[in-house]
Design a protein that fits this description.
The chain is an alpha+beta fold. The protein contains 4 helices and 3 strands; from the N terminus they run E-E-E-H-H-H-H. It has 2 domains: about 80 residues, no CATH class; about 40 residues. A 3-stranded antiparallel β-sheet has the order 1-2-3, with no helix packed on it.
């Protein structure tokens, strides 16, 4: 029986995978029958499992049962539910606050620590690739090879 897997990568691309799981000798193996990738929020184009694709999959894998109603009814999580950056920032802030509270009694006994030092220990967030400056076109850069 084929089943649907859905995932979304860090750029928001949606991946639909039609897989079949088989068990032999106590080992479960998963075989990808079909994979479809689409940019986030696309309203045009084709569906992952249009009629032509369904017919082609059924012809290619005649021994596998496809329950198209169940596959198409699989709920897809919304992109808004994956606010991992905001959640991660909140977790880091809570961790810094907890660490500062734990070190506060030690700071009164020993040398005082500045809160800026705590922030310096936390690595900065990686920049968003869309926020990076555009690089010049290689064809516009003069050739500086020596003759």
């Amino acid at each position: 029986m084929a089943s649907l897997r859905f995932s979304r990568d860090k750029r928001g691309y949606e991946h639909f995978q039609l897989v079949e799981s088989t068990s032999r000798r106590g080992r479960t193996r998963t075989k990808v029958l079909y994979w479809f990738r689409t940019p986030p929020g696309v309203k045009v184009g084709r569906e992952p499992f249009d009629e032509e694709t369904r017919r082609a999959l059924e012809a290619k894998y005649p021994t596998i049962a496809f329950d198209w109603k169940r596959i198409l009814a699989t709920p897809i999580p919304s992109a808004d539910a994956e606010k991992w950056r905001e959640r991660r920032r909140e977790e880091r802030a809570a961790k810094r606050a907890r660490k500062a509270r734990e070190e506060a009694p030690a700071a009164t006994l020993g040398a005082p620590e500045a809160p800026e030092e705590l922030e310096a220990l936390d690595p900065p967030d990686s920049p968003d690739p869309h926020d990076l400056p555009d690089l010049p076109d290689p064809s516009d850069v003069p050739d500086i090879t020596e003759d």
